[in-house]
Amino acid sequence: MFEALETGKFLSDKEFERRGAPLRQQLLKTQFELAARDLPVIVVVAGVDGAGKGRLVHRLNVWMDPRGIETNALWMHSDEEESRPYFWRFWRKLPPRGEIGVFLGSWYTRALRTALDKQPDSEWRAHYLKQVNDFERMLIDDGYRIVKLWLHVGRETQRQQLTEEAPQKQQNPRVGADDKLWWKAYPKVLQVAQDIILQTDTGGAPWHLLEAEDRNYREVAAGEALLQAMRDHLQRPGVDRRSSGTVDPTPVPADARQPRVLDTVDCTASLSKDKYRKKLNKYQARLQDLSWRAHRERRSFIAVFEGWDAAGKGSAIRRVTGAIDPRLYHLVQYAAPTDEERAHHYLWRFWRNIERDGRATLFDRSWYGRVLVERVEELASPGEWQRAYNEINLFEEQLVEHGVVLAKFWIHITPEEQLRRFHEREQTPHKQYKITPEDWRNRDKWHDYERAVEDMVAHTSTRHAPWTLVAGNDKRHARIQILKTLCKALDAAL
């Protein structure tokens, strides 16, 4: 593969100026057109050390408007990054719609570093590269264009770069001990790189393999590849809104209704006040001990709270937070997305709020809004909410692989109990703020939401992240079930 990139391509300074001047104008023009249409672009600059990746990125910032480009050099890892799931560092750096994000040191670096291992785990690399493909696919489906540039130089050129023997204009200003390791492992690096490229060279995000021996040629070739990709992006008809075919969105006739998973929830379950107090003290004390133990062992946990309006999510969350030291958790509440959040993939606002190892994140409503309220209210197209099931499962799988203890609760109540609570809220002065016209409107769509919940549980209750269906007609029973489940999950993990 890489032999074809060692042919001696070069451009004289005069030819570079002749081709570079119009290229610069076209890149700038296309950048502004993408910004006007809120189309985001991600540029991945990868390759062997000493190939001129940093200089190329500098050139792109010179040729285009740097105010619309965010360069992310992720070669110095912080404890903030290491204490969260690996892809967190990339999600939080994704460019908003209409801007360009350049990644120097990307999600490919982790896989490439296996070339330095004495016994690289090819099975692990295959699994990780599948996650990379899934990550890129969900961004492409959301309207991103991913341009992947691989810069290649021969081993002798790399040796000169890393030993500062290259001509002055070609020298690499950053040379360290780690770079010399890469040079020594050069043949193995190319073998692993070929494996990476073959497994991630997809139709939606193809690799552009560029000969990088000559700086002038490298920069013009990269600029031309980027320009063509951005022009193609402008011709794209829009985000693919087509159904993925995983779910039949056709409503089921009322007379054809079959038993559903929510029917298995025993809403008659209840607890007396005396038993409730005893169990509450027991499980809150247990959760307090486990949360401190998780902190010491640097294990984080995430609890997701979903349920019907007036199901008692808030009161259940208060019993959980009442057992955990405030220094150990972060409670996040979600409503309609802000302008900043709408400018990113819908999972972005959840990724960015994941707490570091040893702390808990409690989500009062969550990423499941995409397959619940956004589905029912038609705020998301069928294609968007149907592919969200797989995207959510991939997200949660990465959380669990990192070591997160994940608990998901759907608090279920009957329509009759919801109606009773609505009337109670209307008649109780200090609860009137809890009832809104939107609550009544949502109630009119009970059966639509019921079907959405059924599909949600069926498609996202996985081995690594199962749903707990909570019987919520009796609030005391619901609170104890949630506390007990959290304690059991943490106890098993620790």
Automatic annotation (TrEMBL):
InterPro entries: P-loop_NTPase (IPR027417), PolyP_AMP_Tfrase (IPR022489), PPK2-related (IPR022488)
The Polyphosphate kinase-2-related domain, residue ranges: 12-233, 271-492
Signal peptide extent: none
GO biological process: polyphosphate metabolic process
Location of region: Disordered: 237-256
Gene3D superfamilies for the chain: P-loop containing nucleotide triphosphate hydrolases
SUPFAM superfamilies: P-loop containing nucleoside triphosphate hydrolases (SSF52540)
Annotated Pfam families: PPK2 (PF03976)
Coiled coil segments of this chain: none
Entry's Gene Ontology molecular function annotations: polyphosphate:AMP phosphotransferase activity
PANTHER family (alphabetical): POLYPHOSPHATE:AMP PHOSPHOTRANSFERASE (PTHR34383:SF3), POLYPHOSPHATE:AMP PHOSPHOTRANSFERASE-RELATED (PTHR34383)
Protein name: Polyphosphate:AMP phosphotransferase
